[in-house]
Amino acid sequence: MDKHVALISGAGRGIGAATAKMLASEGVAVGVLDVLLDEAEAVAQQIRDAGYQALALKCDVGLREDVENAISTVEKEFGPITILVNNAGVGGPFHRVDQVSDDEWEWIMNTNLKSVFLFTRNLLPKMKEQGFGRIVNIASIQGLYGSAHSSTYVASKHGMIGYTKTIAAEWGEHGITCNAICPGYVDTALGVQTDKISDYMQRVLAKSPVKRIAKPEEIAALVRHLVGPHGGYINGSSYVIDGGITSHVGITSDL
Ligand SMILES: NC(=O)c1ccc[n+]([C@@H]2O[C@H](COP(=O)([O-])OP(=O)(O)OC[C@H]3O[C@@H](n4cnc5c(N)ncnc54)[C@H](O)[C@@H]3O)[C@@H](O)[C@H]2O)c1
Which has fewest Cβ within 10 Å: 1, 52, 53, 172? Predict the structure, then answer.
């Protein structure tokens, strides 16, 4: 895939970092974007040390100026962007709807959803001109189901999936595909770190079919397929990767 250039948001750690490394190892030149510049730098350095191409950039994905700057810097360095992975995300505190502040709502919605709009709106016309584009949005199983005490996160991820389907419908004829991935529980700072599994999560995992959380690389591998040479007919889809957790209705009934 050495003619491709990817922008990956939130790539300083977790799923984004795993995706950046995996795509780079396929020859893709990657823009490693994160609000945490040191983390993004470390990932980009590992990629370059392995002999591939990467550029780290500080970018707050909820800010239009940062998004535009990241896009133009990566274009100047590597050429036209062919792959966009909207991965940056925040979970926010767990509490009820009536306890959510305006600031919290804006922070989560700007980071998880407005960011997708900012990147996508900018890149779609260029991808149309190229006649090629691959967009992958990292949503969540909480983009498909409700979840008590996570209303803003749930709303942002449902919005992401609706947006994904609409981009697919509008832009498919121009060689652009847009899909979402819905992870369950992944071993990252935002998700469930293997060394800090709560009692609640122990009970979820005990009842889950695969009995473990995912590795970030297991999500990255699906991104690689969706943007790779055999992904072109997949458009507007949302892929659950949760080890089967949402496949059975009894999972949370008596936790
Ligand atoms: N880990 C899970 O269990 C899980 C499950 C479902 C969905 N997801 C989704 O996967 C995506 C990646 O999460 P992760 O689990 O790798 O978490 P993570 O916290 O390890 O990584 C998220 C990255 O996004 C960056 N980020 C946060 N706010 C940002 C901003 N405003 N601008 C730029 N970067 C920002 C963080 O600095 C971090 O590097 C998120 O969208 C998350 O909602 C994760």
Answer: 172
